[in-house]
Design brief:
With about 210 residues, this protein is of the alpha/beta class. The protein has 2 domains: about 70 residues, Histidine-containing Protein, Chain: A (2-Layer Sandwich), CATH 3.30.1340; about 80 residues, Histidine-containing Protein, Chain: A (2-Layer Sandwich). The strands form 2 sheets. Strands 1, 2, 3 and 4 form a 4-stranded mixed β-sheet that branches.
């Protein structure tokens, strides 16, 4: 084989390998996103997948917007995005929101960013601990489904998201307020009716109904 033909063959092989690797990366990312969906979640599987994709895409945009002058947390629930963290000024706060709104699938943005110095590692660790304690307290509360709530904590403020009834939302808020380290509770729920809740719950078999 002459040299030009050999080089052309190597070029084609490299291009094919690149395309193959790209496909593998896309498949892995897709699998990672799909792997986190939950059948017990009140969102549709499509919404759960979209929420993971929205958060990933939005977070990837943040470094170009904030550089090292901002700290932004992105949480998406049922295609509604909550932004928390710190930015250097109002212009950056607006820029972050605009970039997130431009992500495919985003239906609404709740901008809770603070114009303030970046939070410390100690502060973020304390917030993570509060989130863990709130989630554990929700699990202990047997009258509601802990899987129906998303808990986000920023500087001691607990944000509660989820598709819940007003009764469930109030119970969860009261539980969160009783957790040590919680300074404030903000409800960001998508409310459903008690009838809608019943329709979401699996039907009990006749045998189980007879035993109750």
């Amino acid at each position: 084989m002459n040299k030009p033909a050999l080089l052309a063959g190597k070029t084609v092989l490299a291009a094919a390998l690149a395309l193959s690797l790209t496909g593998c990366v896309e498949m892995v990312l897709g699998t990672a996103v799909m792997g986190v969906v939950s059948a017990s979640d009140r969102r549709t599987l499509g919404a759960q997948t979209d929420d993971k994709a929205i958060a990933l895409k939005a977070e990837m945009r943040m470094p170009s917007v904030t550089k090292d002058e901002g700290h932004v947390n992105v949480n998406s629930y049922n295609r509604k995005v909550l932004l928390t963290g710190e930015v250097k000024d109002e212009a950056m706060k607006t820029a972050v929101e605009n970039h997130v709104r431009a992500v495919d699938g985003v239906q609404n943005v709740i901008n809770e960013l603070e114009v303030a110095p970046l939070s410390t590692y100690t502060s973020r660790s304390a917030d993570a601990l509060v989130t863990t304690k709130v989630k554990a307290s929700l699990v202990d509360m047997k009258t509601i489904s802990a899987n129906s709530f998303k808990v986000v904590t920023e500087r001691g403020t607990v944000y509660l998201m989820g598709r819940v009834t007003e009764r469930e939302g109030q119970v969860a808020a009261d539980v969160a307020r009783g957790v040590s380290g919680v300074k404030k509770v903000v409800k960001l729920f998508e409310y459903i009716t008690e009838d809608q809740l019943k329709a979401m719950q699996p039907a009990r078999s006749p045998d189980l109904q007879a035993q109750s």
